[in-house]
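hiii so my PI (J.) wants the whole complex modelled not just the main chain, which honestly fair. so below is everything: two entries, each one labled with what it is. i double checked the lines twice but i was tired so who knows lol
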Amino acid sequence: MNDYHRVMIRTRTDAVWIAAFALLVAFAVPWFLWRNATVVAGLPLWLWWHIGWMVLASATFYAFARGGAWERGVDAGVIRRG
Amino acid sequence: MADLGISLGVVVGYLVVALAIGLVAYRLTDRSAEDYYLASRSVGTVVLLFTTFATLLSAFTFFGGPNLAFAAGPEWILVMGLMDGILFALLWYAIGYKQWLVGKANGYVTLGEMLGDRFDSTALRGLVAGVSLLWLFPYVMLQQIGAGQALVGLTDGAVPYWAGAALITVFMVAYVGLSGLRGVAWTDTLQGVFMLGVIWLAVGWIATVGGGVSALTAGMTDAAPGFAALGGGLYSPQWMIGTAVVIAFGVAAFPQVNQRFFMADRVETLKRSFALWPVLVLLLFVPAFLLGSWAVGLGIEVPDGSNVLPVLLTEYTPAWFAALVIAGALAAMMSSSDSMLLSGSSYFTRDLYRPFVAPDASDAREGWVARVGVAVFAGSTFLASLFVGSGGGLDTLVTLGDTAFGGYAQLTIPLLLALYWGGTTEWGMIAGVGSAEAVYLAHVFLPMPTTYLTWDFALWCMLLSLVVTVAVSTVTASAPAENAEKFGVGAD
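here's the output for the full assembly
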């Protein structure tokens, strides 16, 4: 694998993270359940969505923090080199 | 009066524990400003998580939020999830992690200091500190008012308002003045754990006496048929999105929260905090706001000027438990206010006193001014809180405190540009922050529309800060001494 391929893979990974964060923001409120009053197991269905979504957000953030995109996002290498 | 004794005992016991923690922290704190304000950037995951969390939670979590869920339905949980769980977490990474890196490399303690150095501009440093203090002062005052009222409610007026507010203020000044951030962060951790524990106990208690979660929700939908359905009433998409965005961006520039961005000991701490954050938000806000909404089905009547949560707990739980929850609310107010006092003092001493009044003050003198600053700041907000409502000009302060999040949100987009766009200039920053704050203040105080095209004016002001910062930066040149490369944005 040469440098060109590495850069391409990184760029693609970074784009996937940006898309994942955009999805997390966009569906933090389940717009597709708007005016839906279904109650499941004692709580509104949209509240179950919220509970699942926050757990998913934690899992996504955990995965993001483990990968290389965490450092690239803020140009950490440049700051450390000074 | 046995109940009064129990209530006061719980509250005083709690205050004494907080002070004791402050004293232990004092013994470990040296005299340098970095140690006093940032605990020498040595804070680990548990303490960082809980101090940020407890600092974010004010009286609103226990009083305002449940009141809103009681009046308008539980959808407020979703607004808080988007605002704090997701948007704030992303800003903590984008702004907070970068601030931590450049802060560690260059020794920054405050936001104004960092931006001032980035653009080699004392004027920008002073502007950021001045704007921040303008919104901070009334916000601290509102917390003291809340604490005073909570004690009046708890003791049925046996402790008068002024005495309650004074008691809280004196305790805060004592442990903040003595021990600085280390004491604040440790008491915050105690307060955060305490609040979480108490709110889940409250849910368990109410669910047990109310016949279970299903029965509580059924009672809620019988009494207020619209509450189970998502949206409706107050909750329009524009309102939910606008509130979440403005408050999340505001929180990131609130001095006591922004300063926490500098405190972590190492990058793993930030990574863990980032990953745990949404779950922590979930654990506190769902029970707190559900209690407010369930109260509708339990036929709770909230008198004017009271809050739903204490009324609900007094009705359904023994006095000592209701007192514990009020102590939890006091903890929430104190953990926000103590951090605000400390950050306010650092903004004042480092970004206003040192550069503009005494450029050659020694470190020891700065440390002394900082401690006196905490006491003067707390004393002034306390005095102001006594005179609010008596018809003087001080009611302006209440308006300022109520609109503080929007005021801080006007700093956040220029801050993001300064951190990520090499083309940002000193004049772009000053014009962007200055114009957005001016237009925002005009909307707060003058008879102007509260929405444009159905979206909140604070959002439009944020857009203005973006447009003006970019436009003015484009037509002005960077000063030769600007330090974009320190921020990793030099190469463009």
